[in-house]
Structure formats: structure tokens, C-alpha cells
Amino acid sequence: MSVSGKKILIAVSGGIAAYKIHFLIRDFVKKGAEVQVIMTPDAEKFVTKLSLSTLSKKPVYTDFYGDNGTWNSHVELALWADVIIVAPCTSNTLSKMVHGTCDNLLIATYMSAKCPVFIAPAMDLDMYQHPSTKKNLELAESYGHYIIPAESGELASGLIGQGRMAEPETIVKKIEEFFNSTQHKTLEGKTILITAGPTYEAIDPVRFIGNHSSGKMGFSLAEEAAKRGAKVILISGPSAEKTNIQNIEIHRVTSAKEMLEEVFQFYENVDVAIASAAVADYAPKEVAKEKIKKNDDNLTIELIKNPDILKTMGEKKNHQFLVGFALETQNEEENAKGKLEKKNLDMIVLNSLRDEGAGFKNDTNKIKIFTKTEKTEFDLKSKDEVAKDIFNFIENQLLK
Ligand code: C5P
Fold it and tell me: Would you say the CB of residue 221 lies under 6 angstroms from ligand 1?
């Protein structure tokens, strides 16, 4: 992982966290990056141009108009950068960025940029929680920018809570990870199909049979594959998850039957297929046309088996590398290995609901991976980290 030789434009706005930017610049410069700092006029009240330019070894700009009648070109600055980091990003600067209020050099530079933009917000507790801040951060994400969330702790106001700018080490790590993933497009040229989320099986026009799957694991897998350069076809059941990463083509479906149909639109031409969806095993035999009335004490709904999408993929497999998931509550390993065999898979990812932090809804997961010959255990990690482990494993298998 390296930022060596990278051109990093640090855009500082006027918050107390600006003092931490000295450490950020020093870290990047030590790692061999070229750093250019620009500031809003207010930022100068917190830190001096002299200290920042001494560390970055370049003049620091706040204004379009330089000394001796020169002009600081926001376009040149923007096109020079491999990445822009707005840190600290105040509520004011965030709002100007997302709404295009271009009244200073920092915003003009940001608006002229074509490179990735990272935003490290820093605000007081209530400002960070304000609906307008949340909306603006969402807007920034919808433009494809990366948010480095504020951390919790004691704030300059004396209040305690979320709002502190992420520590310089965290920011450096994010940027390193970003360059690392873009430098190593290990799945370039591959097409990967992923199923995600639950399925809903209609009982009547207002009710359904479903499950607690959030779709988080499938979306993390899709994002990781896309970061590694793959073309991703993500077929998701009803899930609140969203993504704005390029290279991910999302197809939203509701029922298992719809998921099956959508999968087989693409299956023939994919290199890897991963079934992480929690597909409902049964669906009502008939869907009532009108809302079922509450008449009798008992209501019986006849269920019939849904198609097993993954099993069908296994039957039709020719060149695809096929990955299944097993979410188990008992005899976990035995059941997972059974599914590997029965569904003709190349690998299966097991998560047990008996492991704390694993399975549905959580942001974390704890997995074991089985192939026909190997078993590998992993620690409890965030679903994004788990997605990395899964793709590292898949890539090794593809090389065999
Ligand atoms: O047999 P079981 O449902 O436990 O297997 C789980 C695996 O099979 C998961 O990968 C899941 O996505 C997939 N599956 C499927 N279609 C179904 C049921 C499960 O693709 N109807």
C-alpha cells in the first residue's frame, strides 16, 4: 500500500480540527506523496500558511489573487490532483460543495476537479446530527465522494459525542486503501454475478413472507468486486442498501421467482457467481387478489417450494466459479459441506447464527470457507472486511 508519488490536494476549511492537518501533511510527505494545501479564508484564523507551507514544501493558497498581481488557477490546481481531501470539512463548506455555492478558491477548485474527493467532516455534536448535515453528506455520497465519518469523543465545545474529525492516521489509511484498490485491479475483465438480500413472497396485496436479511453482505461483496475492477451484476431482493460505485449494475427484484429469472438473464456469461441472498424457501401457493379479511380464528396458507436458484446454477454450471452461502443454526459444518456437494459449488461461505455478531442485519460477520478440499476460518470482522477475505480466497482459487 503506498501513496508514494501521488499528488494529494488537501483542502482545509475553518474548524478547530485544522490543527490536525499538520500531522496529516507530515505523514503524506513522509510516505513520498506530493502535497498541495489550499484553505478557505476562515481556516487562516486557525492555522497559518507558514506552518502548512513549511510542512508541504509548497505555497498555500486561500485566494484567487496571488501576490504581485498573479492568479492562482483553481482549474490547474484541480487537474493537478490525484485526490482531493477536504479536511476538516465544516458544515458551511460541505453545504457550499454540495449546492455549488462557489464563493472561494477551495470551492472553485473542488468544482473543477475530476479526481476522487474525500470528505472528513468536523463539527459540533448537534451540527453533525442536524438533518441538513445528514442530507448534505448523503448528497456528497450520491456525487460519488467518499465520506470519512467524524469520530466520537470530547469536542472543542466541551460536549461529548460524534463530531471530531477522523484522526490523521485514519485519513491516511483510507487514502492508502483507495490507491491500493485502484492500483490492484485484480478482477479486471471478469464479470461477477451476486445475489443479495431477502425475497418477499406475496400472500395478498399487502402481506408477504420474508426474512430479516439486510442485503449488507451482498452489497459489500459487490462493492469489493467493483473496486477490484470487475463488472458486477447485483441482483437484490428488497433491501434498503444502496451503492454509487461505478461498475455495479443493480437489478432489484421482489420474489424468488423473479430473482431466478433475472439471474438466468446473465448467468451464462459470468465468470464468478456468488449467491448471498437469503431466498425464501417457500411461497404461498396462491396469492389472494384482495386483502385477506380477519374472519376465522385460524388461517391456513398453503406454501409450495420455491425454486432453488443456486442449485439450478450448479446444474447449469460449465465454466463459472460458483459460490454459495450457508446460514446455519446447528450442525453448521456438516450442513455447509452437504450444500457444497448437493448444489455442485466450488466454495461455500458458512456463517452460524450461534456466533455473536454473525449473520443477518449485523454490520459484522464471522465466516468459515469450505472448498471440496479445504476449510479456512476467519475472525469476526466488518462485512466490508469479510468481503475482502472472500475475494482474496476466490482470487487464489481462480489462479489454481
Ligand atoms: O439450502 P439453503 O437455502 O440453506 O442454501 C443457501 C444457499 O443457497 C445460499 O447461497 C442462497 O443464496 C442459495 N439459495 C438460492 N435459492 C433458494 C434457496 C437458497 O439461491 N431458493
Answer: no
